[in-house]
Task: structure prediction
Amino acid sequence: MKHLPEIFFVTAFFGIVFLLGGYDEKVGSAIGNTKMGAAVFFTQSTTSAQLQDTFKNASSTKKKLNILIVPGHEPDFGGAEYQGIKERDLNADLALYLAQYLVEDGHYEVVLARGRERRNPFLENYFASSAEEIKKFVNTQKEEMARLVQEGKITTKNNGVEHNDAPTDVALRLYGINKWANEHKVDIILHVHFNDSAPRKVNNPGEYNGFTIYTPERQYSNAEASAEVSKHIFKRLSKMFPVSNLDGEAVGVVEDQELIALGSGNTVDAASVLVEYGYIYEPQLRTQSVRTPVLKELAFQTYLGLADFFHEPSVISSPYESTFLPYEGKTPVKKTLLANKEVLSFQAALSHKGFYPPENYTKNDCPISGLFGPCTHTAITAFQREHNIKGEKGEAGPKTRSTLRSLFAPELITTR
Ligand SMILES: [Zn+2]
Result:
């Protein structure tokens, strides 16, 4: 594929810092009930209202919203793999697309934790120079957490979803990212991942599909803001993409107490959200011609979710609020063994018009995959019936395509 540049700092390294209310009193004073309705021991380190204020004042104060994007896993190690496709590469590519949308928007300062090839040198230096402090930080937080659990101030929660344990050095770097983010007053951390299901034979697809968002368990100091951000990103992604059908993930936004990325041991002050954008073996990730637009769309929907959280219309012009649309399909839609781009945009267009997934099927049964199979065939048949198209039975022939195209004529744009 076209090599993505190793951009670490999409914009300049942010030197501007600001204090969040109660920042220094992270652990200590018990507060009452939050909006989430749970008894919370940790003082809120950030809130939705604070983030929204920062965002609103961004233009006048020049203090932009600080976002740290962390592509899951290491440049050369870890993550799911399928048929030579590596999750860690997909994470880096999606993160870069997302960073580009956020920077283009103008409200955000964006830092990427790594690219495909190497870590952000600032973080790399930090890991090396602060190794001892990071270890101390982890131990202090863990001891404090254990004490609070023992005293009954914090309740341990298990959401039933199994996570792989990270090797010690990887875990330390994840905690290091948390500490670094705390010290640099990062507002929001977005962790980018693709999922895997176990057990699975290396070269066989697994049984689940769809995306899930993990958010800090509600007792943590960053829980409220993270949950709100998660909710808005979820709303956008779920318009087009199926939600994971794995037990425990099917709720869409899953609270988690153990993931380091989200602040295990209450180690993160910023809102932190971890998105599993789909399963590594899903067909839309197999071929580059489909994978690239899909990664861009996932990034774009995430960006729109953030814009929604901030009550801000997207400043990036996209009349149908999707990079897949409007439908322009002028080339034939072919049935190929692997996914192809014509089928992808055809399915997206049918989906926008309510024909895909076809009646009685879910998005998990019939995802927008770029694969022409029974789902697409059934959807086309219904579309042809509705539009009285004859002679192209279940095929995406010229009449079908031009009818679908005409539904995306500029004068028909009605979305906001
Ligand atoms: Zn992962």
Remarks:
- Residues 74 and 170 are 8 Å apart (CA to CA).
